[in-house]
Design a protein that fits this description.
Elements (H helix, E strand, L loop, with lengths): L1 E2 L10 H8 L4 E5 L6 H12 L5 E6 L7 H14 L13 H10 L5 E6 L9 H11 L3 E7 L15 E5 H4 L3 H10 L2 E2 L2 H11 L3 H12 L7 H17 L6 H10 L7 H8 L4 H10 L5 E4 L2 E4 L3 H14 L4 H14 L3 H10 L3 H10 L1 H7 L1 H9 L10 H10 L4 H9 L4 H7 L5 H17 L3 H21 L1 H4 L3 H14 L3 H13 L9 H16 L2 H12 L9 H18 L3 H7 L15 H15 L2 H14 L10 H15 L3 H8 L10 H10 L3 H8 L2 H6 L2 H17 L3 H18 L10 H8 L3 H8 L1 H4 L16 H11 L4 H8 L3 H15 L4 H11 L10
Parallel strand pairs: 2-5, 2-6, 3-4, 4-5
Antiparallel strand pairs: 1-7, 8-9
Helix pairs in contact: 3-4, 7-8, 8-10, 9-10, 10-14, 12-15, 15-16, 16-17, 18-19, 20-21, 20-23, 21-23, 22-24, 23-24, 23-26, 24-26, 26-27, 26-28, 27-28, 28-29, 28-30, 29-30, 30-31, 30-32, 32-33, 32-34, 33-34, 34-35, 34-36, 36-37, 36-39, 37-39, 39-40, 41-42, 44-45, 44-46, 45-46
Length: 857
């Protein structure tokens, strides 16, 4: 900061000149002392410079506001301006003489009256207004500090212009102009800081400039602002000896960043709060601003800091109570972040819990860090008897497992939940169950969470019908989160109806993420199912919505990205698929973590086309290690990734490795049935492939995607078995599925040479196979796979020698003869095409006949 010059701080404000230049009989300037009314009018009149115009100015001094003194001052001003006294003035009143002089002037006349607030006679403003109506050549300019005079009802049918304190405040540009005129070389950051600190009040802005002139470079602008604001407030605006009640009111209302009349009353607990506020507004100290149809008031930042400092000095014992009042008012008025802020400053643990419990959803969505910090500061015991608060804490921080399980045990059962949905307690019950469901899901307890989700969906639907006024805003969130819980638990079909409800009812919720999240989730669900056509429509609806402002946005966008990747693959738009696959499938940001398995599933399918199956297998292993908490019982992740892994292994020709997946914990899950049938087809076991493909129970429960792929497996297997009618029927149904969904990818999952022979009987299939996008895509799986099939005894011998045992030691361990083990060893070598024990072990490991941990020591 450098001082260039110090020769004055007057600035020209064209916008105010424009207002004063407007044609009007009366110009009122109403603002407190220090807002520059007198200087503004004087400079305006000087610039006005109309030679034939007479200007008379009157300053009403304190104590000279009675009628006689006022009219004498007007006569003196008119005489000084060159007007003559009337010839017949003897015996006339001062008022009559003044009126005569004003109405008989032969030149246009401007009468400027300054400090009109000092006029004590009650009717003078009415008399002046009447004169204006009757005297076209007369114009009146009045400066006053309040609107006790010239009230609006007196100005009916009179052309008038009024400049208030709000008009006279400096704009940001005028603040910069003033500071530069004062000789201060400040950058934009410093100027904006001064503008925010002063609030545009002219007097403190000028004092700010004068104070800065006397400081060296590097002066603390904030500290100077606080000093100037404190002096101006206490000495000029709110002197304690004149209006102590207004100063007390100002101290209290400076606590919140902004306040309304309602908040001022609640904060001060003073029935006269509204009157105090009106006095401050009328004095031009505070200015109303509209916020959602309500008038709100804000102290300039420097004034607010100065008042806050004074409050801490005068009434430190009241500050916690004031924070408590603010917290409760903000909770009541749907301002949860402000409520939490003041509850924490009140250092009231129970109030913090109360605020978080009352508004946990918007707080966690938009103010997660603040909630986390607040909960960390509260001892676990504070949540002991509060089910909802326990669940909320578990969502954010996690606690001992038994806490959330005990909390869940205290929830109503299914029958009680439905009964309570018809009572007036329903909102509290639903909100608590909602939080518990999320907490269990976040822990990976999908069986309990999905049970809770189904119970919650049933009771929420009843509650919305019985008590819409209580729960309508809550139900869309419940529908969405419960549906997503079911989806993560593998219940794809069960998630669809509540997702549709969440979307349809989203307008009832104050949370702006419900609609786009429901749309993205529906696109995601239908893309997982293989309904490419429906998923695309939901993606269009999602894209039509702006991004949300919560930390959930990456999760919402991530589900849409998975849907886009799957759609691109299904349509064999591999360039688009490559672009969509650039996202990180191991993204572990909060909110997006839970969907990791679906992201890896989609990337694994892309890897089959890109020829990067080994990389995808590594990705699977890393994902399982990173997100192990969501791999538990009833999670969709386990079978979904097992199916993806089996496909990757089959694409690499590693049939024995795939067999281990099918013999593992998820082997009989419906998601793996296509893979099992595919392995049978690739190894020539057509009968097993047909049996798995025609399983009616599986067909009823599976996805459109798997049903589509299985039709083609069935077609090829039946054709091999010379069952031409079944083969043709299956291929026709596959063609119909492609026409309905637009999915071409299933035709790359079987050998197209065999399909081509069969397509001679199904012309529509031939047309699909001839499509350029399909013709240019490679088959994803080999035509056949060789399996190494061992007997149980051979497998045991293999596992023993893999640990380093000799043949004699193996015979002893298995309680058989040496020659028996040697025979089984030779059979092993033949099947593995190995020539030595080490070669056999290496080939067995390569073929997947040994578990990864069974390495020779």
């Amino acid at each position: 900061m450098g001082v260039r010059q110090t020769n004055g701080s007057m600035i020209y404000r064209p916008r105010l000149d424009d207002s004063l230049n407007a044609e009007a009989a009366l110009r009122l300037l109403c603002a407190p002392m220090g807002f520059g009314k007198t200087v503004l009018v004087r400079e305006w009149l000087r610039r006005r410079n109309q030679p034939d115009e007479v200007v008379a100015s009157v300053r009403v001094r304190t104590g000279n506001g009675d009628a006689a003194s006022f009219w004498v001052s007007v006569i003196e001003a008119l005489t000084d301006a060159g007007l003559s006294m009337p010839a017949l003035s003897h015996g006339r009143s001062w008022q009559s003489l003044a009126e005569r002089m004003l109405t008989t002037s032969t030149s246009p006349l401007v009468l400027w009256i300054d400090n009109f607030e000092n006029v004590s006679a009650g009717s003078i403003d009415q008399i002046l207004i009447d004169l204006l109506r009757d005297t076209p050549a007369l114009q009146l300019v009045v400066c006053l500090r309040d609107r006790r005079h010239f009230r609006e009802h007196l100005l009916t049918d009179l052309d008038s212009t009024t400049l208030t304190a709000q008009d006279l405040r400096f704009t940001a540009a005028e603040t910069a102009q003033l500071l530069h005129a004062a000789g201060l070389d400040l950058d934009d950051t410093a100027i904006n800081s001064i503008y925010r600190a002063s609030g545009g009040w002219p007097a403190p802005t000028r004092r700010f400039a004068l104070t800065l002139i006397n400081h060296e470079d590097g002066a603390d602008i904030a500290a100077i602002g606080d000093q100037v604001a404190s002096q101006w407030l206490h000495h000029d605006v709110l002197p304690e000896d004149d209006r102590p009640e207004l100063l007390e009111f100002a101290l209290l209302t400076a606590m919140p960043a902004e306040f309304s009349v309602d908040l001022a009353v609640a904060l001060s607990d003073d029935p006269a709060a509204a009157a105090h506020l009106r006095a401050l507004v009328d004095s031009g100290i505070l200015f109303p601003a509209e916020d959602a149809g309500t008038s709100v008031y804000r102290w300039p930042s420097a004034a607010r800091r100065a008042l806050g400092s004074a409050l801490r000095e005068r009434h430190p014992e009241r500050i916690p109570v004031l924070h408590q009042r603010l917290a409760r008012w903000y909770v009541k008025n749907d301002r949860p972040a402000d409520a939490l802020h003041h509850a924490r400053h009140a250092t009231d643990t129970s109030l913090i819990v109360e605020v978080i419990e009352a508004a946990w959803r918007p707080l966690i969505l938009s103010h997660y860090r603040e909630v986390h910090e607040a909960l960390v500061s509260i001892p676990l015991e504070a949540f002991a008897n509060n089910v909802r608060a326990t669940a909320i804490r578990d969502i954010v921080l996690e606690g001992p497992d038994e806490r959330i399980l005990n909390a869940a045990a205290r929830l109503p059962n299914a029958a009680d939940s439905i009964r309570l949905a018809e009572t007036m307690r329903v909102r509290d019950v639903l909100d608590t169950a909602h939080a518990v469901m999320i907490a269990m899901r976040r822990r990976g307890q999908f069986e309990q969470a999905s049970t809770q989700a189904r119970r919650l969906l049933a009771s929420a639907a009843i509650a919305r019908e019985k008590h819409p006024d209580q729960v309508a805003d809550l139900v869309p969130s419940i529908q969405l989160v419960a549906a997503q819980t079911l989806l993560l638990a593998g219940d794809l079909a069960g998630s669809l109806q509540p997702l549709h409800r969440a979307y349809d009812w989203s307008a009832d919720s104050p949370l702006d993420y419900i609609e786009p999240d429901a749309a993205a989730s529906l696109a995601f669900s239908h893309a997982i199912d293989g309904r490419t056509d429906i998923a695309e429509k939901w993606l269009e609806r999602y894209a039509a919505r702006p991004d949300t402002s919560t930390w959930l946005e990456p999760s919402i966008r991530g589900k849409a990205d998975v849907a886009r990747l799957l759609l691109s693959l299904d349509r064999l738009d591999l360039d688009a698929a490559h672009d969509h696959a650039r996202t990180d499938p191991l993204d572990d940001r909060l909110g997006i973590q839970e969907w990791w398995a679906f992201r890896i599933f989609a990337h694994s399918r892309h890897a089959l086309h890109a020829g990067t199956a080994p990389d995808a297998l590594d990705l699977l292993d890393r994902g399982r290690a990173l997100f192990s908490r969501w791999m538990g019982h009833s999670a969709a992740a386990g079978p979904l990734l097992a199916a993806a892994e089996a496909d990757l292994l089959l694409a690499l020709g590693r049939g024995n490795h795939a067999t281990r997946i099918f013999e593992g914990p998820h082997g009989n899950h419906p998601l793996l049935q296509v893979g099992r049938a595919r392995l049978a087809l690739l190894t020539g076991d057509n009968v097993t492939a047909i049996r798995l493909a025609t399983d009616p129970a599986w067909q009823r429960s599976t996805t459109t995607r798997h049903r589509h792929e299985m039709l083609l497996v069935h077609a090829v297997a039946a054709h091999r078995e010379r069952d031409l009618p079944s083969a043709i029927s299956a291929l026709q149904h596959a063609v119909g599925s492609t026409r309905a969904t637009g999915a071409l990818r299933p035709f790359t999952t079987v050998h197209r040479g065999e399909l081509r022979a069969l397509a001679d009987h199904v012309p529509a299939a031939a047309a699909i196979l001839d499509a350029p996008v399909l013709a240019n895509s490679r088959d994803l799986f080999p035509r056949e796979i060789r399996l190494v099939v061992l007997t149980k005894r051979e497998q045991k011998v293999l596992e023993k020698i893999a640990t380093g045992l000799s043949i004699h030691q193996v015979a002893t361990a298995l309680h058989v003869s040496y020659s028996t083990v040697r025979t089984q060893q030779r059979s092993l070598y033949r099947k593995l095409q190995a020539e030595s024990q080490s070669d056999a072990i290496a080939r067995a490991q390569q073929s997947g006949l040994l578990s990864p941990e069974m390495h020779r020591v």
